[in-house]
Amino acid sequence: MSDYSIRDFITWHEGDKLQPYQDVSGIWTIGRGHVIKDNEQWMKNGITQQQSDDILDADLQVYYQAVDNSVNVPITESQRDSLMDFCFGNGIGAFQSSTLLKLINSGASDSDISAEFMKWDHAMVGGKLVEIPHLKEIRACEVAMWTNSMVPAISAGVNASAGGLAYFQKKS
Questions:
Q1: Can you give the residue range of the structural domain that contains 71?
Q2: Into how many domains does the chain fold?
Q3: 30, 36 in Cβ contact below 8 A?
Q4: What's the rounded Cα separation, in Å, for the pair 110 and 103?
Q5: How far apart are CA 136 and CA 30, in angstroms?
Q6: Is 109 exposed, middle or buried (0-12, 13-18, 19+ CB in 10 A)?
Q7: Does residue 18 lie in a domain region?
Q8: pLDDT tens, position by position, 66-119
Q9: How open is the CA angle 5-10-12, to the nearest 5 degrees?
Q10: pLDDT at 9
Q11: What is the pTM of this model?
Q12: CATH no. for residue 48?
């Protein structure tokens, strides 16, 4: 993980909810975007802050492992973080079958890879594919991490609730 906190970045874009909620697609979720699985129905009663932290730690391991097992070319730590976040938000299956991964593994340009990230700004809502503005912000942040041009500003003391690219600072 990079020197900035990917945990803080995920908390910025997912929130940290100790009570279950349905995401924009109607999927039961808790903590920092953790999808409640069939064997985790106990979570629908709510979780503690410690449980939320532990769940995020376990989720990060799963998604970093998926990135590490899928990417066949050298990438920077910042690029790995961007892909882990993409995988976290879209799911392992979607990531592994994505054109984004194919472009990365084929050695495509950062420009082509960035454009592909930005295509992932829709979600299923009520059975229809709908553009979600917040997903556009998240993809722009992942592109900033991919290109290593900007880093999350949490470590610089910027309030994560500022939102969007205001969350980032130019890399020095």
A1: 6-170
A2: 1
A3: yes
A4: 9
A5: 22
A6: exposed
A7: yes
A8: 999 999 999 999 899 999 999 999 999 999 999 999 999 999 999 999 999 999
A9: 95
A10: 84
A11: 0.84
A12: 1.10.530.40
